[in-house]
Amino acid sequence: MSEAARGHLAMLIFSALVAGSFSLGALVADQIAPLALNAIRFVIAAVLVGAMAWIGPGFRRSDFHAPWRYPLLGGVFAIYFVLMFEGLKTAQPVSTAAVFTLTPIMSAAVAYLMLRQILTGRMAVSLAIGGSGALWVIFRADVAALLAFEVGRGEQVFFLGCIAHAVYTPLVRFLNRGETALVFSFGTVTGGAVVMLVLGWRAVLETPWMLLPAIVWVTLFYVAIFASAVTFVLVQYATLRLPASKVMAYTYLTPSWVILWEIALGHGMPPVWVLGGVALTCLALWMLLKNES
Question: What is the DSSP string of 114-141?
Fold first, then answer.
């Protein structure tokens, strides 16, 4: 399997794992402060990724040159996670997943400014199609709402988080100095843990951890292990092998995965017309991944 193919496989797994955090996050968004949950999830993720890096490629002295890179990257990603859980307090999982699919457009713009990665004609068309599909889902196939541009507060909050995510992806390649994906991920999640603990220490102390329902603990360990530790490694592995816009193209699969998660959790199907927007995002993914002629 080629390096590029491995990058694509990593992002396919990434999209499925990320989708679970939307559905599970919606179940606990009102039961724990986003700052508290994300501070602990970053700490757990840092321990897990650090152990994997120690057992795997190990650490070199050069890995910790310019250590300011790690809290910068971790802080940017922490903004995304906190605003995601804040948005899920009022927004539906499928709707927020659709907002997430707008990140490839923003990521392509940032990648051009930072890395001079050129957006080809095919990629521009596919991003436009994907963005249209995302808007169709966000507005729940309601043309009147689309024309009036009535976006809920949850979607607005999460959109700000997606801007941070769009900046993060090209920033990984811009700041990486030859570190392996595991080591660089460890630095990033450790930096994120430090930033989150500095900002959220009061929320952590005020949270009645022993009184939290089981679903909060399930969500905490899921987002810490699968939606943090594993996905950090996957996205950084893929980012070093694929253009930023193609890495973020896999976010177009997120609404489809979220629908499957919602069905599995017994929440039913979204309105049938919304599926048209999901189909457009899948078409955009196919166009983005198709080799350029």
Answer: HH-----HHHHHHHHHHHHHHHHHHTTT
Q: Tell me whether residue 143 is exposed, middle or buried, using C-beta atoms within 10 angstroms of its C-beta: 0 to 12, 13 to 18, 19 or more.
A: exposed
The rounded distance, in Å, linking the Cα atoms of 107 and 113 is 10
- Cα separation of 281 and 137, whole Å? 10
The answer to whether residues 42 and 229 touch, using CB atoms and an 8 Å cutoff, is: no
pLDDT above 60: residue 293: no
| pLDDT score of 122 more than 90 | no
What is the separation, in whole angstroms, between the first and last Cα of the chain?
Answer: 22
User: How much is the pLDDT for 140?
Assistant: 65
Q: Per-residue pLDDT for 108 more than 80? A: no
Cβ atoms of 197 and 15 within 8 Å: the answer is no
CA 110-113-118 angle, 5° bins: 90
Note whether 74 and 191 are within 8 A (CB).
yes
DSSP designation for 35: H
Are the C-beta atoms of residues 259 and 278 closer than 8 Å to each other?
yes
- Element of type H or E holding 80: helix 69-87
Most confident of 88-102, 217-231, 262-276: 217-231
Would you give the DSSP letter of residue 227? Answer: I
Q: Which residues contact 274 (CB under 8 A, 6 or more apart)?
A: 94, 136, 137, 140, 141
> Across residues 194-198, what is the average pLDDT?
93
Which two structure tokens, joined as six digits, stand for 86? 């804040």
Integer Cα distance of 198 and 205 in angstroms? 12
Q: What whole-number distance in Å separates Cα of residue 2 and Cα of residue 8? A: 10
Determine the average pLDDT of the residues in 148-167.
84
